[in-house]
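Recall that a protein's primary structure is simply its ordered list of amino acids. Everything else, from secondary elements to tertiary packing, is in principle encoded there. The following example makes that idea concrete.
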Amino acid sequence: MSATPDLAPTDVQLTAKASGFLRRGQPWFYADDVERGDTTPGRLVRVRDENHRDLGLAITSRSKLALRACGPWTGDGVPDRATFFQARLARALDARAGVLGPTDGARLVHGEGDWLPGLVVDRYGPVLVLQASSEFVEQSLDAIVPFLAERLQVESVVARNDIAVRKHEGLAEEVRLLHGRRIEQVTFREHGVEHTVRPFDGHKTGFYLDQKPARALVQSLAKGRRVLDLFCYQGAFARNALRGGATAALAVDQSEAALAIARADAERDGLQLDTHCGSVFDFLRAQRERNAEFDLVVLDPPAFAKSRRELDGAERGYRDLNRQALRVLAKDGFLVTCTCSHHMDWRRFEEVVRQAAAGLPFHVVLRQRIGAGPDHPVPITHPESEYLKVLLLQRLDP
């Protein structure tokens, strides 16, 4: 029997079963998947299979996920942090070369989709906003930020690390300036519409860049239609609809601060936007009682299911909302309905929508399925990263 090869200090060996999963593209592994090696959190390691063959790089974590794959790397050792991040970041930026202009908004790094687990970087014109959800990424900001700032010639880099997932890595939730000057508010252009972003206190990293394809769809459908934008945040869908020729657009949200920005942005672009501050559930019930109708409804609620335990309650919420939204559609009207929970997969989401449409006195047909844009790459072997699902439905009467 041959002796077991010694592991280098930077090597981690997976079990035979886990090695097979990694070869098939699975990026996440637990402590039980590790056969040998030091998985002290916050390290970049070389992964080996049960026969000591190379499986690429990974980062170690103190969360339940002991290893997160970072893809292949030439050679046999582990690169230093600066070399690793410069190579991976350069590749991510090159893939998005068409959206790196001074007034563009785009996701420049999308975690596992760019072999950079634990890192998200969004661009809003001259401002970069990043989120670090792993200890290794947090420890490597001194290599990440200078490279991005110099490569992109941005004026500001902000850490929006006020995300709950950081607690699993023992990291503090915080928002801080990492580079340049503090910019409280910035604008960027998309589909001919200008959007205001507040990097330090807006939702997520300041905006919902993932909905770029859906906003283009709404703009293309809106001409001559009365539009209702539900859970609108800063009214991006409604303003795209007006840009596309909608006769009227009403944006509904519970945040008066967000609606104030929506109105200001619309006024700056010469658009007439109506707003309503209040509960979307209550608003839809009131519209139904007065027999109000809209030709195009956008339903983009927050993630109702942030864990699998919440799925049953989330389904009830999505089902109720979609049924109410369908009931205020005018004849031949369109509903753009969304979920941003990765726990709600396509099959489950479509089933909920089918249940919402059951028994209505008209047909509801599915016209299109879309997700996030190409700047949010989804590895086909990692469906957990496909969190955004958008359905285009149409009411057809007999």
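The radius of gyration is 23 Å. The first strand starts at residue 11 and ends at 14.
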